[in-house]
Amino acid sequence: MAWVYLGIAGLLEVVWAFAMKQSDGFSRLVPSIVTIVTMIASFALLSFSMKSLPLGTAYTVWTGIGAVGAFVVGIVVLGESISPMRIAAALLIVSGLVMMKLSAA
After folding, report:
1. Transmembrane residues, as ranges (predicted)?
2. pTM, 2 dp
């Protein structure tokens, strides 16, 4: 279950990062509330996953899912620029996540 919690926590990190961007510096109420609620839920699930996963593995995977997810949302939803260098960087993060998962087995 720890990996499930961690995966959901990572996805919630993407949600709160996007909502924070939409909150316009916490000046818009609904995105601000979504940011805070999903942030708390993400941290709680990360904490649950850390009961059985090593700190370094859990935190690295959590931030990696958030980073790559925010990267994809930025491109797909917000129209942010895409370049071969940015794609390569995201692929390196994903490969690191895979290696972390394999090393924890």
Report:
1. 27-46, 58-79, 85-104
2. 0.88
